[in-house]
Amino acid sequence: MATVVNAGARLDRLPISSFHYRIFWLVGAGMFFDGYDLYVAGGVIASVIQTKFSTPLQIPQFVSLTFVGMTIGALVTGFVGDKFGRRFTYQINLLIFGLASLAAAFAQDMNQLIICRFVQGLGLGAEIVVGYSTLTEFVPPKSRGRWLSMMAFLVVAGFPATAILGYLIIPSFGWRPMFVIAGIGSLVVWYLRKNLPESPRWLESQGRTAEAEALMQSIENEAAGTTALPLPAPAITAQVAQRTAADMFRPPILQRLLVGCWVLITINTLIFGFVIFLPQFFLRQGLTITNSLGYTVVLSIASLVGCALGAYTSDAIGRRWSIIGASVVTVVAGFIYARFNAASDPTVVLSVGFVLIVAIYVQTAILFGVYTPELFPTEIRLRANGICNTLGRGATVVSPFVVSWLMLNYQLPGVVWLMIGLVLVQIVAVYLWGVEPRNRGLEEVAA
Asked: What CATH number labels 245-437?
């Protein structure tokens, strides 16, 4: 029986094969429905109010309890995933929000729907932690940024998907079919994902070397069948001391934990305190509902452009400079957006707004999908990533109230200045404490 599997180096030297694509699409399908379930709330809220299924006073509970569930799910899944494995965890969380989505479709009153939404949140918060972390441990370092950013692209694709399906379905059939689609889709993916393998890196970190070796041989045989050349020899990686949960709170991992927490607080606030509120911002500044939704559709396209751009720059110029560059663009475009009262001029709202959303979603792709999972060793990756996501999701519980207060007292410029302040701190944190994982194996980054 092998005592040292060297799984990380062996995975990192493999050519891209059908194995990698299978992992990507099966994990990515679950991540897409995570994004779908996350963004579906906008259309559902409008419908339940219009049909008198809900009172306006119940809507904040519907929104905030979703994020409370996501916050709890992100924290719990980190500890479960490091203890029981990636495969077990991503199957459980997908089952949770799939069944909760179907239950939501048959809710008899708004209170039942709110409870179902909270349970959905538990699964949604868990999926985003374990999905990105799982793919991180399989793909090679030279293209890891592109793979993970494209995973973020699939999550963000839930934004236009819910907008289009909501436009086609809700006026004729109501809001319930939107949850049926999420539930059935999630359960189909759950069934297909039963054949996904465990992470060899995690198995080796747990001392399960026989299982890790057998799995690595299976993966290598599949990869070898895609090339006429022999597989390159893996690098011999130095053995690194096993990390424990306590190491998260000691240097140098503590600095990485602080960076991960702040960047996810920032990006969650940008998305759920600004991007999601765009239709309301436009309406408050005098646009018609038709123009407001039209502007939002145009800007939602920018979210996909931003993710695609992040997929390119994360490997081309590196994670740190991609984050810093996109942050600088966010500050500049945000200043122009606030300074010239964007909604009063269609040219400004569509041009500057497009650039602003692209910059935000470059950060979204890299911070959620690429950078944060890479910062931590395998033994504590899900726990540390879960803590970062917990604080990030916690910001989504608070940000709607902060944004509402700023809109009431300072209008759109107040919201944008909050966004700029958070991003400026992010630039400093990533510049001073951020590491650069580009073209480096996870074990090298951990060491």
From this structure: 1.20.1250.20
